[in-house]
Write a structure and sequence with these properties.
It contains 17 helices and twelve strands. Strand 3, helix 8 (about 135-145) and strand 4 form a beta-alpha-beta unit. It has a five-stranded mixed β-sheet with strand order 2-8-7-6-5, with helices on both faces. A three-stranded antiparallel β-sheet has the order 9-12-11. The protein is globular. The model has no long low-confidence stretch (mean pLDDT about 95). The chain has helices at about 5-10, 20-30, 55-60, 65-70, 80-90, 95, 110-120, 135-145, 165-175, 200-210, 230-240, 260, 280-295, 300-310, 315-345, 365-375, 395-414, and strands spanning about 35, 100-105, 125-130, 150, 180-185, 215-220, 250-255, 270-275, 360, 375-380, 380, 385-390. It is of the alpha/beta class and about 425 residues long.
Length: about 425
């Protein structure tokens, strides 16, 4: 007799422990305010409260229930699609990227955009390349879609994007599946804070163009942390312009998280943006992604879309938001500067950090993690290391945390 649930679904288990560890850290901090909770991938003010942007506060204080609580368009309103495309590529994107078709669909956060991509561009049994150090949910999303995963080394000995590894893994996918798909998590890579520079982008483009001589290539840019870090957004949007050099055999997709940019973590709102010179591919994207969305989550948060749309379509509100976002990013950069400087007193191995919410200690040792917790600090075990969220601690805690980590390392390894 068959089981109620197919075997493939019985084998699905949650891989990440971030939420469980975060809950443990929050409970500990409630009992002792000196506890350092460096687990959360959300931005907290220096007073320990989650950051609420003025545009978000204004929406909650002056709600439009008829809009916020009504069903939204599956793809998002035309206005939402336009303002988010401008936010990602720039106000003059149609002139800058002349000759391209653009299509955007609203999704439940960046995660929805990732799932949508794998569900519409890959068949069960095909493969996708992921960075060797990664956000664990990538693996769950792939498994849920029946997609096989391959990993490329994130960076080389010079702390540049590891192009050789990408090419080698890409050739394996070509031989096995006749198609290449790759996720690039940049800028402010989770969990390392690694960030590509202009040369990395150029080398990636050259490599993908070479692969595209043999097969189609799907490039999925996970830009969840596009707007956090010192000058991160400005630099990365300049690098995007290099994408115009990509062959027509390379499909360009952006997974955007408004949940991150606007601090709407629980509202789950984002977008998947396609950029292509091929009208047929543009039309296929519109139809297939609409179908997937309607049959999976139906439509995304109307409240979330309203906040984004109302903010970015009003020049004054947008200017105010950009200023507030810049101040937030500079504060995050200051936390990172303090932590890195204080940690230099110790020999703790750290992945290349440039910008962003997270920093990864390259220490895979349970005793080390336990020692840190004994001293009242919490991070999250992440594959080959221990991730600390600079986004959820203040500058004073950043300095304290560096010394807690350093002393724990010395105690265990010296």
């Amino acid at each position: 007799m068959k089981d109620f649930m197919p075997k493939k679904n019985q084998e699905k288990k949650m891989l990440e422990n971030v939420l469980a560890v975060s809950a443990k850290a929050r409970k500990a901090k409630e009992l002792d305010h000196k506890v350092i909770n460096a687990t959360s991938g959300s931005y907290y003010n220096d007073n320990g409260n989650i950051k609420v942007f003025d545009c978000v506060k204004d929406t909650f204080e002056n709600p439009n229930f008829n809009s916020h609580l009504s069903y939204a368009n599956v793809r998002g309103s035309n206005q939402y699609q336009e303002v988010v495309t401008k936010w990602i590529l720039g106000d003059n994107y149609k002139e800058e990227y002349n000759g391209y078709y653009f299509s955007l669909i609203a999704t439940p956060g960046g995660t929805g955009a990732l799932s949508l991509t794998m569900g519409t561009y890959l068949e069960p049994g095909e493969g996708i390349m992921l960075p060797s150090i990664m956000w664990p949910a990538y693996l769950q999303i792939a498994k849920n879609q029946g997609v096989n995963t391959y990993t490329y080394e994130l960076y080389d000995e010079n702390e540049n994007l590891n192009i050789d590894s990408i090419v080698n893994e890409g050739k394996k996918l070509q031989e096995q599946y006749g198609k290449v798909a790759i996720v690039i998590n940049d800028p402010c890579h989770n969990p390392t804070g690694f960030m590509m520079d202009k040369n990395d982008y150029q080398n990636l483009i050259n490599a993908l163009n070479d692969l595209a001589k043999e097969t189609k290539v799907i490039l999925l840019l996970d830009i969840a942390y596009l707007d956090y870090g010192k000058n991160t957004g400005q630099l990365t949007r300049e690098y995007f312009k290099l994408l115009k050099e990509l062959s027509n055999n390379v499909m360009i997709l952006f997974a955007f998280s408004a949940s991150k940019t606007f601090g709407l973590y629980g509202l789950r709102i984002g977008a998947l943006l396609q950029m292509t010179r091929l009208e047929e591919e543009h039309n296929l994207f519109v139809d297939a992604t609409s179908y997937f969305a309607r049959s999976t989550w139906s439509n995304s948060s109307h409240l979330g879309m309203d906040i984004v749309e109302n903010t970015l379509s009003d020049s004054n509100k947008k200017e105010s938001f950009v200023k507030e976002l810049s101040e937030t990013s500079l504060n995050l950069a200051k936390r990172a500067e303090i932590f890195v400087k204080e940690l230099e007193q110790y020999d703790v191995p750290v992945a290349p950090y440039k910008n962003g919410f997270f920093i990864l200690l390259l220490v895979d040792n349970k005793e080390f993690e336990t020692e840190i917790e004994k001293e009242g600090a919490y991070g999250v075990h992440f594959g080959c290391g221990y991730r600390l969220a600079l986004s959820s601690i203040n500058q004073i805690e950043a300095a304290r945390l560096a010394h807690i980590v350093g002393k724990a390392y010395n105690k265990i390894f010296k």
